[in-house]
Amino acid sequence: MKVISVRNLTKRFGSFTAVDNITFDIEQGEIFGFLGANGAGKTTAMRMLCGLSRPTSGEASVAGYDLYKNANRIKENIGYMSQKFSLYEDLTIRENIRFYGGIYGLSLSDIRSKTNLLVKKLKLEDSINSLVKSLPLGWKQKLALSVAMIHDPKIVFLDEPTGGVDPITRREFWTLIFEAADRGTTVFVTTHYMDEAEYCNRVAIMVDGQVEALDTTGVLKAKYAAKDMGEVFLQLARKAKRGDG
Amino acid sequence: MRQFLFFVKKEFYHLVRDRQTFFILLCLPLALILIFGFALTNEVKNSRIAVLDNSKDKATRAIIDQLEASRYFDILEYIPSNDKLEATFRSGKIKLAVVFPPNFNQELLHTNTATIQLIGDASDPNTSNALINYATAVIMDYQAGFRNAAEIPLRINTEIRMLYNPQLKGSYNFVPGVMAMVLMLVCAIMTSISIAREKEIGTMEVILVSPIVPMRLVFAKMVPYFLMSVVNIGSILLLSVYVLDVPIQGNLVLLILECMMFTIASLALGLLISSISNSQQVAMLLSVVVLFLPTAMLSGFMFPVENMPAVLRFISHAVPARWFYTTVINIMIKGLGFEYVWKETLILAVMTVFFLAVSILNFKTRLE
Q1: CATH top class, domain B47-149
Q2: How far is residue B260's CA from residue B47's CA, in Å, rounded to a whole number?
Q3: Min CA distance, B193 vs chain A (Å)?
Q4: What is the ipTM, given to two decimal places?
């Protein structure tokens, strides 16, 4: 079953085409990696799918709803974690979970059981009443991911979720992503860590606003005769005309 | 509605966790009232003056006694001669000197006119003006009593009555002014900063992706600051009545309702600012320049609107605090009812609705 389907989606900012006519489908339960250099258009593409940015042209449906007609239904069915850390540092772990559960319309008893489950899984039982700002960055990121999925969304969008995190925590973070995918949640993740690309079922590589390649990592590596995704990426990204930024 | 309450709760956490800001916001009215009430006063009270009496007769003695007896003046020294006068002014010890010419009483009795020279230190024009007025009033008082005793032909006298504020107390006009400033500060500046902060730290993105109606976030932000302002209105009124002896002449309920409306207008302005600023610094700067300064300068509280240049007077029409200030003066000091302030109230109400509408329409539900 396709949960995301994108046809000729384009976003222009004035004369600059950030996302240029992209087309792809994503199956349910897939971990879909969105790769690209800085400024390739990854974040803009993701923001359009989340309803944060209005496409200039093209069609898309997310979680079975049309991007233009049913934006609100889409919002109920997706979770989102932005590049910036998105929890409130001056609230405790419990208060953050309760707040995000609350705005997604969860009942109080649901929020309570979710909170217990979540802190147990993240081993945060002892610090549930401490302020989020006292947590190490890695824990904050794991907590932010869990909070983004508190309402069991069909799809979760992760925008460079592991920036600035150490390798061990990144590994743990990906364990959380695999568990979500096993439960049937579709994961749409942008990254520029090539080892993370290897964890994805399929990856799309964006260059200058266009999807330059899209397939499973195995097929891509064979096609470009590369020993890892890093090489595949370098071969494609070399064609880029845009600079950083 | 449930989502809304979750938001309100969160806002209260923000407010209370930031102890310093919370404390400042609650103590600000106290500090402003005390500063304006006791330090920055331009009332005349126990001002030091000097007397140069070249006549030393019955009349001059009586006038000097009357000056001394009034609570406005303390006679610091008696200057022996004219040439010492300037030195005394230069020492800065006095702001006013009263000079009697020789043969004062005789002239008064024989020619019916005598002159007293009042010399003020006009390096501070407001104070010297006030002192001269007070001294003149005291001398007029003496003249009145003197004339009743001796029978003198009819003469027209001016009688001055200072309405609503007979003692000319400064606190009568700064209580409403401080109220406008505090409400603007707490509501507008804090709301705009707190929305800008959500944009800065990235939580705004997450909220915009969630199914919540973004306007709920905005209204939820207003709730804590509104309540805080109600507390501040209360503390300002209590301070003004019990510490500064400024009575509330008019209807208390009407006064509080007017204050609440100004609070909502300020909140709407804060929202408007936040919709055009993406960082806390910009929000702060905009609120101070666009909201706070006009509130302080153009509301009539520091400088009378009538004396402003035409351009500033014109601009002052757009400053909500100007209308609020007039309303509070009318209700609180003059004791007037709604029929005297409905015009100002209507203008404020229209402004409030306008600001709210513009900021709601302007509130971006997308990031671009």
Answers
A1: alpha beta
A2: 40
A3: 15
A4: 0.87
Token digits for A177? Answer: 């992503």
* Domain hosting residue A108, numbered range: 2-237
Cβ neighbours for B151, distance < 8 A, ≥ 6 positions apart: none
User: Which of A90, A98, A103 has the CB atom closest to B210's CB atom?
Assistant: A103
State pLDDT tens for residues A6-21: 999 999 998 999 999 9
**Angle (deg, nearest 10), helices B252-276 and B190-201:** 30
Low-confidence spans in chain A with pLDDT less than 70 = 243-245
Question: A110-127: per-residue pLDDT in tens?
Answer: 999 999 999 999 999 899
CA distance B212 to chain A (A): 6
Contacts of B110 (CB under 8 A, 6+ apart): none
Task: Name every chain B residue with its beta carbon within 8 A of the beta carbon of A80.
Answer: 205-206, 209-210
Interface test with A, best of B197, B201, B205, B213 (most A CBs within 10 A): B205
The first and second tokens of residue B293, run together, are 């300064």
Number of inter-chain CB pairs under 8 A, A vs B: 85
In chain A, the residue whose alpha carbon lies closest to the alpha carbon of B368 is A53
Q: Find the CATH number of the domain harbouring A112.
A: 3.40.50.300
Domains contained in chain A, number: 1
pLDDT digits (tens, 9 = 90+) for B214-240: 777 778 888 999 999 999 999 999 988
